[in-house]
Design a protein that fits this description.
heterodimer, A: mainly alpha, Four Helix Bundle (Hemerythrin (Met), subunit A), B: mainly alpha, Helix Hairpins, elongated, ubiquinone (chain A), quinone (chain A), NADH dehydrogenase (ubiquinone) activity (chain A), NADH_UbQ/plastoQ_OxRdtase_su6 (chain A)
């Protein structure tokens, strides 16, 4: 039941994000969407992913986006608004994509997949937390992607700082 | 949570994905387009975590979603830096008006 509450909240605030013309309202409704997705992660037994979602998206990306809105709009002459274009064609294309995806999901016969049928889902209830498994996996099987990720983050940090610097003033 | 069928989670993910696509298509402010892309990333992550429930000992879906989040964070940082730079040059963040390479 809690899942449907979070799902409703996510879809409603996502719709409001698309419909509103005020950029700040769009940013805050994206906040609600990200929070409800984090709640759904908790319900799906993914506690570490939920905490990471809160820290990375809500704590990092969303603050960056709000900074971006504040710094790239002139508030005094109403530029914090943004118009929509391609409304008809955008809606048509989106609706077609949605219908295609739902048709595929409903006709996919997911319960015939052997690894879904034989899955031992009681293990998760006993384990209580996924942090232990994820930590061991990150340091053994996924050590190369983990190190590449740290390198990528370093490069992104340096690149973002370099790009955003005002070269005329320095 | 055992009562919720897998299809419902996948349909929620499809809805979020479509909303992200709609934001990318119809909005013309660069930051809102980035917000739509974040929504699409979230939809993909939701799928990965939903299937990871059936893989409780390996949790490959959850690990993959962690890496997706990481790439999304790096992308957001660099893209917003580019948006700020473009705004300094052109004095606008409207994607329809940014159509030449230099001033």
């Amino acid at each position: 039941m809690l899942f449907y509450l979070f799902a409703l909240l996510a879809v409603l605030s996502g719709t409001y994000m698309v419909l509103t013309r005020n950029l700040l309202y769009a940013g805050f409704s994206l906040l609600v969407t990200l929070l409800s997705v984090a709640g759904i992660y908790v319900l799906l037994f993914a506690d570490f992913v939920a905490v990471t979602q809160l820290m990375v998206y809500v704590g990092g990306v969303l603050v960056l986006i709000l900074f971006g809105i504040m710094l790239s709009s002139r508030v005094h002459d109403q530029s914090v608004m943004s118009e929509s274009v391609n409304k008809v064609w955008g809606t048509v294309i989106t609706f077609l994509i949605l219908v295609g995806l739902c048709y595929t999901i409903l006709h996919a016969n997911l319960h015939m997949l052997p690894w879904l049928e034989t899955a031992d889902m009681d293990v998760l209830g006993l384990e209580k937390s996924t942090v232990h498994i994820i930590g061991i996996k990150l340091m053994t099987d996924f050590i190369v992607p983990f190190e590449v990720a740290s390198l990528l983050l370093l490069i992104a940090l340096m690149g973002a700082a370099y790009i955003a610097t005002d070269k005329q003033k320095v | 949570m055992e009562g919720v069928p897998l299809e419902h989670i996948l349909i929620l993910s499809a809805l979020l994905f479509s909303l992200g696509i709609l934001a990318v298509i119809t909005k013309r402010h660069a930051v809102v387009v980035l917000m739509g892309i974040e929504l699409i990333f979230n939809a993909a992550n939701l799928n990965l975590v939903a299937f990871s429930r059936f893989d409780p000992l390996l949790l490959q879906g959850q690990l993959f979603s962690l890496f997706v989040m990481l790439v999304a964070a790096a992308e957001a940082a660099v893209a917003l830096a580019i948006v700020l730079r473009v705004y300094q040059l052109f004095k606008t963040a409207n994607l329809n008006q940014i159509n030449h390479l230099s001033k």
